[in-house]
Specification:
It is a single chain. With about 525 residues, the protein is of the alpha+beta class. The protein has helices at about 10-25, 35, 85-90, 140-155, 170-185, 205, 250-255, 280, 285-295, 330-340, 370-385, 395-405, 485-490, 495-505, 505-515, and strands at about 100, 115-120, 195-200, 220-225, 230, 240, 245, 265-270, 305-310, 415-420, 430-435, 440, 460. The protein has three domains: about 1-95, no CATH class; about 140-175, no CATH class; about 175-515, no CATH class. It has 15 helices and 13 strands. The two termini are about 70 Å apart.
Length: about 525
């Protein structure tokens, strides 16, 4: 037995080059030109996964097997009979049109070669066209790709990012989520129902940062009249929301660029666009849990006197800065005509202009301007949006979380809530990060603006602290540039918490801010 050759680089070029050199030393320099060129088809070196793990052992009269000599992945087991069958046909160009397969030679017959069999080349199907052999195969569409991505995300990710659906949705629910996002991101025009009064051309214009359902840069104008103890939403004069834009047809007819604020209004307010992440979970928090946090008479003497908001018919409110809207469905259905001027089957009439009807011919699209199906899909998209998971806390963040509770912030910003029963199992009976009690609190004169329902100008619903890490401004009007400024503007029931925050050392205040920025 001969000694092993020294260890070398064993790509295909290396193995075949070594074998070719060995063969040349035995007088066969010209019998295997395909060997020295590397791979007989491409001439490229072998990938790392195909390289042998140890040197080739050479025996007298033995030629190493050469991967790919027969045009496939099987090694050539013939040792001395020249090139593999079909190699010359490939060198002649036959492999360009299809694979040539030569039958094996008969033993003892040298130099004879049968005619190669022709195998038709593979015919590729057009992209997106289902194969005949696949039952139920469907074309690949961007929407199906989105659903597949959501299924993969739901199956392997425990962290909910902004814009992700709640974990545990079925394929059908994820498909509705994807289709609803299409409606949510739609841009309306006057020809498709926009206006004639509007604040945005679509839901996505106000809820886009950092993902669909997030914040926006738009600032709205609201106005009401407060005559203690009653609140007038000025419905007869156009309602509390003053739309800031008009269509060209309305501008030409009336010469206005926006809806005027009613002269009887006693207060105006600016409103930023909040995130709608996790709103489907907030919608399912039972009334009993909300009422359990209420303490309007401050029986525990902590200075916090939260009370539930109410709609006009007495139901507990959950949505809106004044906790006036009881259900997510009502909140979503009301947003289309109020914010975009697009009527829907549940609110099929146009907004008035300061209480006056729309002039004839200004809005040619028949009401309602979106279908019930489109409204249902948009509602499902918002309902299925998950509550984003907080970022991983460092040492300062963990200390800030403890201080957040110690100084009293968690008395109103309750860290987690629990949903009740739901026909959607992924939403039912689950805890989620909320940082709200959904109650109204007196925040003092510094934040006071308008009234709505039973909420006075100083009353505000506790804002859910979700996705604060992506916020650029803070508070309901966007007037706080930093979290420290937002805390310092908390008055009324939160005055004691504010005082305790300001009394902390700088390092502790920074720790609380670090915790909030992780939410």
């Amino acid at each position: 037995m001969t000694a092993r050759h020294p260890r070398r680089h064993y790509g295909r070029q290396g193995v075949q080059g070594e074998a070719h050199a060995l063969h040349q030393s035995r007088g066969g320099a010209d019998r295997h030109p395909a060997v020295a060129r590397g791979h007989p088809r491409s001439g490229r070196s072998t990938p790392a996964r195909c390289r042998p793990t140890r040197p080739v052992l050479h025996l007298p009269g033995y030629r190493p097997r050469l991967l790919g000599e027969d045009g496939g992945t099987r090694p050539d087991h013939r040792s001395r009979d020249g090139p593999a069958p079909g190699a010359r046909d490939r060198r002649a160009g036959g492999a360009r049109r299809g694979r040539n397969r030569s039958p094996p030679r008969r033993p003892g017959v040298q130099g004879r070669r049968r005619r190669a069999r022709r195998v038709p080349p593979h015919r590729h199907r057009p992209r997106g066209r289902p194969r005949r052999t696949d039952r139920g195969a469907q074309p690949v569409t961007p929407q199906r790709v989105a659903v597949a991505s959501l299924l993969l995300l739901a199956g392997c990710a425990k962290v909910v990012k902004p814009g992700d659906p709640v974990p545990g949705l079925t394929r059908q629910q994820l498909e509705r989520f994807a289709r609803g996002k299409t409606v949510f991101d739609s841009t309306f025009t006057p020809a498709t129902g926009l206006g004639p009064l509007f604040n945005a051309t679509g839901c996505g214009e106000c809820h886009e940062d950092p993902a669909a359902g997030g914040r926006g840069d738009e600032i709205e104008l609201h106005a009401t009249a407060f005559h203690a103890p009653t609140c007038d939403p000025l419905v007869q004069e156009g309602g509390p929301v003053a739309q800031l834009h008009t269509t060209p047809a309305l501008k030409q007819a009336l010469g206005i660029d926006s809806e005027p604020v009613p002269p009887s209004a006693t207060a105006r307010a600016h409103r930023t666009s909040p995130v709608v992440f996790g709103r489907g979970l907030l919608d399912l928090v039972p009334d009993a849990e909300i009422l359990s946090y209420a303490d309007p008479d401050d029986r525990n003497h902590d200075g916090i006197r939260g009370r539930p908001g109410r709609s006009l018919d007495g139901r507990i409110g959950r949505f809106g800065r004044k906790a006036f809207v009881p259900t997510l469905r009502e909140f979503n259905a009301g947003a289309f005509p109020t914010e975009t001027g697009v009527t829907d089957p549940e609110q099929p009439t146009e907004e008035t202009i300061g209480g006056q009807p729309i002039p004839p011919g200004v809005d040619p699209v028949a009401d309602p301007e979106i279908t019930q199906n489109a409204l249902d899909l948009a509602d499902d998209f918002v309902r299925f949006l998950g509550a984003p998971t907080a970022a991983k806390l460092g040492k300062d963040g963990r200390r800030g979380r403890d201080l957040f509770s110690q100084i009293g912030c968690a008395s109103c910003h309750i860290p987690t809530l629990r949903t009740g029963p739901s026909p959607v199992p992924a939403l039912a009976h689950r805890e989620f990060p909320a940082y709200t009690d959904l109650l109204l609190h007196d925040m003092g004169p510094e934040l006071a603006d308008i009234c709505l329902g039973i909420a006075t100008p100083q009353d505000f619903r506790t804002e859910p602290l979700l996705d604060l890490r992506d916020a650029k401004t803070f508070l309901h009007d966007g007037q706080a540039a930093t979290l420290e400024q937002a805390i310092e503007r908390h008055g009324g029931e939160a005055a004691g918490v504010r005082a305790r925050f300001k009394a902390l050392p700088v390092a502790d205040r920074n720790a609380i801010v670090a915790f909030l920025k992780a939410l």
